[in-house]
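Re: weekly structure request thread

Next one in the queue (682 aa):
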Amino acid sequence: MKTTQLIRLISIINSLFIIPACSAQNPSESLLEDVLEDLSVNNDINNSVNTLNWENELEELSNRLQEPINLNVATREQLEQFPFLSDIQIEHLLAYIYIHGQMKTIYELQLVEDMDKQTIQYLLPFVCIKAINNESSFRWKTMLKSAAKYGKNELLTRFDIPLYKRKGYEHTYLGPSVYNSVKYSFRYSDRLYAGVVAEKDAGEPLGALHNRYGYDYYSFYLLLKDCGRLKALAVGNYRLSFGQGLVISTDYLMGKTVYASSFNNRSSRIKKHSSSDEYNYFRGVAATVALSKDWDISGFYSHRSLDGVITDGEITSIYKTGLHRSRKEADKKHLFTMQLTGGNVSYQHNRIRLGITAIYYLFNRSYEPELTGYSKYNLHGNNFYNLGIEYAYRWHRFSFQGETAIGKQGWASLNRLQYSPVQNTQIMLIHRFYSYNYWAMFAHSFGEGSTTQNEQGYYIGLETSPFAYWKFFASFDLFSFPWKKYRINKPSRGTDGLVQATFTPLSNLSMYLKYRYKQKERDWTGSKGTLTLPIFHHQLRYRLNYSLGDVLSSRTTLDYNHFHSQDRAANKGYQVTQMISSQLPWARLFADVQGSYFFTDDYDSRVYVSESGLLYTFYTPSFQGRGFRCAVRLRYELNKHFLLITKFGETVYLDRNEIGSGNDLICGNKKADVQMQLRIKF
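Done, posted below.
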């Protein structure tokens, strides 16, 4: 016992070397931005239909900053929400508390096996240490009284005002060009969440025509967590994720990034849907009950209307954007319904985790899309199912997890092996097999493509910090598509390699250099699928981050792209971005100023620029051509109740007199807009 106390005393003394690093700008926010940027840019999400919406993830992590997790009572599921914690680190953290008892100080994290200094810095803003004194068992009456007394309310409204006019507003779009959303949320601790969301996209009418009840989109949710044996209960709109996402997943914090821990798809199970995303959610009821210490059972039912096109009484396409600006778009709104039911049974004991997930869903009309070319093996009919078995095992420094699933036709399997030979070093091996005829409407998992279909691949990654101040990441992905894909009229294959070196000599100074090489195949434009050539894409990025305490921070980014096809001239692109963030010491005012210059030969050599946005948003637009972009964001906190954010952004193109096409056409070379957001807490 004395030895343990001595070790803890030493850890407290050593914590003095970490405190200065933590007093600077929050490194967790920078890490999360880098993860989201990598996922947005490098995972084949290049169109508005599949644009990832990060509202849910960002809101959950923001709430965690306000109410840190007490590590002495933290559960595995709570720790799994942090993308910078690996499975092995979570296991060792829970084991440390089990063996040594309650932590006395947050800096005991240094004593946890495989918990490095950088991870501790990421974790500190989200956790705390509080003594636990024989907590009484759960009582519904006590919880409801405490919620009524200590619950927190938040009202959030947002306006986007474009300072330009698109062609669609002349005769086609039915509403004003202003975007508006209103969100009300109630939260008590980590147990009770409730809220309402109302949204009108730009161009949609408000309180008129097909939106005579006000806004175009309404959402409500109620979520109870950890109420005795009831681990979760969701009513209204909710999200689901089980296993590796081969059967069902509405989470997006996974994919190819330069952070090893972000590859882990966690069993997040049932979550609230509090964002304005109009497609990726379920509506009904879902619950998880603990049958025993090791066994959980979940069940869910959803009934909701979907947008689409109906021809001759059959569904021919599903419309996913949620936009109802024109009469044509409004005619697609809520044309058919979908019902979904299913469940999950999971077992977890020590190092073993097993689970079975099954879903069954049907439309009220037959789904008969056009099945030609690359979509030949997509599913059709009016009732479908998916069944998956998940498994995981940890042994010393090895961690293995996977899932195998079947559908109405085809099957899929994803397996991951992670090994940490020494501290600060991780090796990852990932194999996935998604048959060309496997179809799962709600699946989302690791891969080169945006769907869990028609893909095979082997991925290896290495993350290590062999020297002080240095961190290296290298990966190689060998993938193939057994059947045709969009713009590829035959089976194809490709490679994806990445190397990044990060240098952090000081707590307020870091830089990295990243090189990525990708080779794929693609039909040559104009050949009508008769000529398929290999394409080669080289990406080089340098980024420098510097902060001067909490007063000033700077981020410089340089990008270079080189894109070419076999025997064809190369297309090049580059961009330079400078961001400066400052806090006025005499006021509660924060300011971000960012400027970018870009030059690309075409769309293939396009560049991406990430910007600080409003609360719970992340903005990474792509640019092609020649021009510059500037953005200014002001954040003013009047007091703990009122927060106002204003952002102005303008893009100027130097190589054209028009922007966009069709209804989105803008006459002129400038595109500017103002965003405003007000948050009230009470």
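The two ends are 46 Å apart (CA to CA). The first strand starts at residue 69 and ends at 70.
Next request, please.
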